[in-house]
Amino acid sequence: MIVNTCGFIDAAVEESLGAIGEALAGNGKVVVTGCLGVKQDLIKKMHPSVLAITGPHDTPAVMKAVHAHLPKPHDPYTDLIGVKLTPPHYAYLKISEGCNHRCSFCIIPSMRGDLVSRPIGEVMQEAENLVKAGVKELLVISQDTSAYGVDIKYRTGFWRGRPVKTRMTQLCESLGELGVWVRLHYVYPYPHVDDVIPLMAEGRILPYLDVPFQHATPRILKLMRRPASAEKVLQRLEEWRRICPDLTVRSTFIVGFPGETEAEFSELLQFLGEAQLDRVGCFAYSPVDGAAANELPDAVAEEVKAFRKERFMLTQAKISAAKLQRKVGRTLRVLVDAPGVGRSSADAPEIDGVVRFKGGKAGEFRQVRVERAGEHELYGRLQ
Ligand code: SF4
User: Fold this and answer.
1) Does the CB atom of residue 102 touch ligand 1 within 6 A?
2) Long-range contacts of 64-67 (CB under 8 A, 24+ apart)
3) Which residue's alpha carbon is nearest to atom 1 within ligand 1?
4) How many Å separate Cα 132 from the centre of its chain?
5) What pTM did the predictor assign?
6) 298 FRET partner, CA 20 to 30 A, in 128, 281, 284, 325?
7) Cα pseudo-dihedral 80, 83, 87, 93, rounded to 10
8) How far apart are CA 347 and CA 354, in angstroms?
């Protein structure tokens, strides 16, 4: 089994180490990859029996480890499309590696370097191969999806014999031609993000945006050195929803960042109330070795962080529940992940909720009439 890890913040490190332990217990043969792979000593100390540890963005090393422990069957088609670590009906499409920002709580740029965008022709060819292999949903990922192409000055590439610019909008337009679900992750609210909202309204890509806002007050965002922090987020959200009323917005936030006052935290809660986001994750700030934020004064006490996280999640739970309740009575298109469980356009795999019903086959699209809503899940009947 290949375990992809994250060393982004301490909570993610713990989660990754737990996932490695679970994989070892369940399968016994585990290759570790991803960001946490740079901390080999930590992994070896906790899990000495892993077969190999590779760093981020190192598919050849992963493949080498896999082939060393499992002879590689020759398949001329899958040989072309590389490793796929998900169920057959959805796949992650990585469009770039690294990041040009220097958020003070994050060490990803020091591990992965500056942004390097993959040529658009290569990305589109991979997407097309995945669709031909039966993938029904493509999840576009990177460290900063909206910056796609900025490092290569939006160079023109070719796909299906046509010139296409290495740029998020053109990527979305091209992916929209493949006839499968396309979901965007890690989009920062730069002005040109507005250009993809009409594509969502027209049903060419999923009306879903994963925008990691992290905080709402200008002072904390500045301390965090967040990109695009000055944009008028609430106004933008309103405009996006006016163009695409079905838009689902997911975000993540950090509470208890060094120096965060009670008043600033209250402002964040107020922002949540106004923004009415659909899906929200929240981390209590924890320092990561090597992050610039470690030098900031006025660390927030652990119990205060925990309490703020609890209040944050309670506030958001009410918002999410009310938003899900409004879906009762509607008929939604879902992609079935397993009999009885599927996801609508509002649900990214593994991080959002699901839709539950009786029946269905993994990998098929079905219509589900929603009969009931929980805090994170919907329950309904196949049509
Ligand atoms: S945008 Fe910020 S948080 Fe995201 S990878 Fe870059 S530096 Fe890290």
Assistant:
1) yes
2) 65/31, 66/2, 66/31
3) 101
4) 24
5) 0.79
6) 281
7) -80
8) 6
